[in-house]
Write a structure and sequence with these properties.
By secondary structure, the protein is an alpha/beta fold. It folds into 3 domains: 146 residues, 3-Layer(aba) Sandwich (Rossmann fold); 137 residues, Hect, E3 ligase catalytic domain fold, CATH 3.90.1750; 50 residues, no CATH class. The protein contains 13 helices and 14 strands. Strands 2-1-3-4-5 form a 5-stranded mixed sheet, with helices on both faces. Strand 9 and strand 10 form a beta hairpin. Helix 4 crosses helix 5. The longest helix is centred in the C-terminal third of the chain and has 78 residues. The two termini are 71 Å apart.
Length: 432
């Protein structure tokens, strides 16, 4: 039997008993003991069982879709997942593809009907455990926030893993000071980003990638793969109060992956937590300037009918509406936000007039209207055809029903004839 080995480890697991190596050894020994052929294996490290968006599961599903395996071996069912509903749905997906799940330590097989009750009970227990441990983790993390904790320091700082102390990054701190200085000199955020890119200053994403050895999130890059400062990355630094030494914790809460912003009065505030990079007075000057230069909301999204509907194929940014004046006339154009904010190093110049979009939409709508009219015409013709044929078909059905009744009557007569004949045959010897 061709099998796939799967292992998963999360932060709340017993690191010794449920280590990835331990799980793999148990599954491998189980497969060898039963004479199974291991065709592949995958794992997920530091991933919650409540989340089914996993690289290891994707690899497993690819093997299932390619019809490479007939069984998945896990140490126990909790390794597959702890979310009761999603785990059940995933098991059903495997069953549809004739793939069973075998728990090496629990002796459970999803293809055995007698194990369905055990699987259901295990699912309830795993779901409860995940939710309970999640509550405890959130409560513990909340207390650490109150006490003052930072997991990932903002750009300009780094955390000593040995001592846990937060220190200023000399190179990044200079970049932060440069951003504040340029902004107070009258440079806009877009212009500051351009100057930083020209000077080759390292971006926050670039520094994280260098320290972690990998990119930890989606980043803005040039078309040749270079890290890029953007309008938003400059804005994030200008509003960050950490540079004055203040740590603000509990600014948002997460529930099922959705962030809920917390009122500023409920933040956990810790003065003098970070080394000071920007003076308090300078930071407040920047905040006042940002507030003064902020554009008032004008319902821009509501005014332009294609706002939020167009996406640049090259960089993935949305197209934003802009009003252009030419020869005394104004018109609406939609331009790539990536190019508009970050220049040609980030994306090409893409723009399209609203009139062109209107014409394209109208043409498409007309095409759809014609297709619908043709389909309606066909349906009407079919309706008329069936209306004409209905009396003929009804008569034919009636004739067939009468024929069936005649045949049933003939069958009854034949059966009765055979019964009478059989009775006479039995009575004849008795009469002698």
């Amino acid at each position: 039997m061709r099998v796939w080995l799967y292992a998963r480890l999360s932060n709340d697991d017993d690191q010794e008993m449920n280590s990835l190596l331990n799980q793999q050894e148990i599954c491998q020994a189980f497969a060898e003991q039963h004479g199974y052929t291991i065709v592949g294996q995958s794992f997920d490290d530091n991933v919650s069982g409540m989340n089914f968006d996993r690289r290891g599961l994707d690899e497993l599903m690819a093997a299932v879709d390619a019809d490479k395996i007939v069984a998945v071996i896990v140490k126990d069912l909790s390794r597959l997942g702890r979310h009761r509903t999603q785990t059940a749905l995933f098991i059903d997906y495997l069953r549809e593809h004739q793939v069973r799940v075998i728990s090496a330590t629990e002796g459970v097989d999803t293809f055995r009907d007698e194990d369905d009750l055990i699987i259901g009970i295990r699912g309830l227990m795993n779901d409860y455990y995940a939710k309970d441990i999640g509550k405890k983790i959130r409560a513990g993390y909340r207390q650490k926030q109150k006490d003052g904790i930072v997991i990932t320091p903002p750009f300009g700082y780094w955390k000593d893993k040995n001592t846990g102390q937060i220190k200023a990054d000399t190179e990044a701190a200079v970049t932060v000071q440069l951003i504040y200085s340029l902004y107070l000199q009258g440079c806009g955020q877009k212009e500051i980003a351009r100057r930083l890119n020209t000077a080759g200053r390292k971006t926050p994403a670039q520094l994280r990638a260098e320290r972690c050895g990998r990119e930890v999130r989606q980043t803005h890059k040039t078309r040749d793969g270079q890290f890029l400062w953007t309008y938003s990355s400059v804005k994030n630094i200008l509003v960050e109060e950490a540079y004055t030494g203040v740590l603000n914790n509990h600014r948002r809460e997460y529930n099922n992956g959705k962030a809920k912003h917390i009122d500023k009065t409920d933040w956990y505030r810790h003065e003098g937590f970070f080394p000071v990079i920007i003076g308090k007075q300078e930071w407040e000057q920047v905040q006042a300037l940002l507030k003064r230069q902020a554009r008032p909301a004008n319902g821009n999204q509501a005014k332009h009918r294609y706002a939020g509907l167009l996406t640049c194929r090259e960089c993935g940014n949305a197209f934003i509406p802009m009003i252009r004046c030419w020869n005394g006339k104004s018109r609406v154009e939609y331009v790539c936000r990536g190019y508009h904010r970050n220049g040609k190093t980030y994306c090409s110049s893409h723009r399209i007039h609203e009139e062109v979009l209107d014409a394209a939409v109208q043409e498409y709508a007309e095409t759809v209207r014609k297709q619908c009219a043709e389909e309606l015409k066909k349906l009407v013709q079919m309706q008329k055809m069936w209306a004409l044929r209905k009396p003929i078909l009804d008569a034919h059905i009636l004739s067939l029903q009468e024929k069936v009744q005649e045949l049933e009557q003939e069958i009854d007569e034949i059966v009765m004839e055979k019964i009478i004949k059989s009775e006479n045959t039995i009575k004849a010897p008795l009469a002698r």
